[in-house]
Amino acid sequence: MTGLAAGTVLSGLGVGLNAVVAEVFRVAPMQALPAWTKSTRSFDDERDALRGAIGSVGAHLDSLGAKVGSTSAEIFEALKYLLEDEELFEVAEGNLNDGWSAAAAYGMAVNEFAELLGGDPDFDERVKDLQDLSKRVQAEIAGIKVGLELPSEGSFVIVGEDFSPADTAQFTPAVVGVITISGGPTSHTAIICRSRSIAAVVSCAAAVDLVDGDVVLVDPVGDRVVVGGEISSATQAIKFIDTGREPIIPVRSNIGSLDDAKKAAAANANGVGLFRTELLYLSATSQPDVASQSASYAEVLAAAPAGPIVVRTIDAGSDKPVPFLNMPHEENPSLGVRGFRLIREHRSFIEDQLHSIEFARAHTNREVWVMAPMIATAGEAREFAGLARSIGKFKVGIMVETPSIVTQIADLKGQIDFLSVGTNDLSQYLFAADRMNPALGLLLNPWQPALIRTLARIASEAEAAGISSGVCGESASDPAFAVVLAGLGFKSVSASASQVGAVRAALSAVSEADAKRIATGVLAFSTAEEAKAFVLQELALLN
Ligand code: PEP
Ligand code: MG
User: Fold this and answer.
1) CATH at 49
2) Protein residues within 5 Å, CB atom, of ion ligand 2
3) Structure pTM?
4) pLDDT classification of 165: cutoffs 50, 70, 90
5) Which residues contact 515 (CB under 8 A, 6 or more apart)?
6) End residue of a domain, out of 178, 206, 233
7) Residue 234: its pLDDT value, please?
8) Residue 310 and residue 397 in contact, taking contact as beta carbons nearer than 8 Å
9) What is the mean pLDDT of residues 348-355?
10) 336 and 456 part of one domain
11) Do 82 and 182 belong together in one domain?
12) Atom 8 of ligand 1 has which residue's CA nearest to it?
């Protein structure tokens, strides 16, 4: 039953080019677990809290076991056995004695057990189970609901406020569409949906009225959701004629995992333009050592498409908190200690990371470029370049994501080899518009003239300074926008693997002169709507 009439159009911001029709499934996403802290309460209070949480999680496992058939019920019994392990409880009590809160004490105890069991492939699944139980117990203590409990069969459009990267990792194959009420076009939900070709519309405030069972058309190209809409009425993207030519600039791929690296290779990308290393560690509660990092990077490098591989050092913080970096609560995390700023507190991690990347580079014999995120000053750029060059045989670069560094590109001449523009964050800081705030989606639209003019400045100043420039923000995944980027003088773009084909097609269909003419023309417009309409019209005429 719905309160919305068939044909009702809900506006939002589309992600990707695929449309889908399916039934709505409403979900309440899991909140992040609080950071581990010392307690101000007594040992007894914390121990009671821990016993209580273990009891409640045990009861929940019983109820899950009762719902399923006898074979699966055994799985829940085995989990309960792990949960109630007395040795584990004793280790947690030791941590309570050291003054840790119940959640921290249990989480640490599980990590210690996991480390003992780790390395033995026979215990891999048990370690995963233990970590899952640890999360459940910690969530119970904090009063947080665990897990999305998504359907595993059928086809659904899931509708929720927004989804954390950890939530999106739980999407089952039954998730064919995603609608977020909040969350902007550059949020991580958007990035992950694009990379998995899941039809998505974000910043769709009116979706709050959708209920389970509604059938909706998710129409990303039309920036809308239509209640009861038919797939045949989905808005069509411009289809570029396949000329068989190479694109006018290389189209690399953005990746965050081994799986993405394989998809990028299958999509025929010209190398990798952004490897988001932090995505490997979003749920790691302890710092990975050099050996395990080296192994993960080597796997990814070996699977990546031919061409250079741009690896970004960790960009933890803000919307991508990494637990082991233990950031204290920040009032305004997107303006806080994130990206390269972590060097002050966590230098050893960044050094370890560069050593691991160097190991993987030498081991796989791939061409690796490294870059640091969230660089705000020329001094930071120099510090990173010096460090990276002292550790490995890399080309060295920075991300341009802050307006401050845009004004200092000339100062970087001879210091760095390349720069890559992160338009997601650059828009956020240029427009003073939180990229996670649904009310501000229009300011984060890449067609905003202020962003395009800033990009023009970056490309020309990079050229003058002899620095190779590229764009790896989500804007480069839009085929029409990628033509503008090439015309402005960027030397490469990097798109989500699922968009590499579409971006390649656009950049093969135009000549360098066409792209330049279109990019020059678009600079004259003063609104995002006019700018986009001009480019789409020019491209339609060429096709
Ligand atoms: C960006 O900010 O555009 C970018 C590519 O980095 P991320 O989205 O990972 O912050
Ligand atoms: Mg960024």
Assistant:
1) 1.10.274.10
2) 401, 422, 425
3) 0.72
4) low
5) 248, 483, 484, 486, 487, 507
6) 233
7) 94
8) yes
9) 96
10) yes
11) no
12) 424
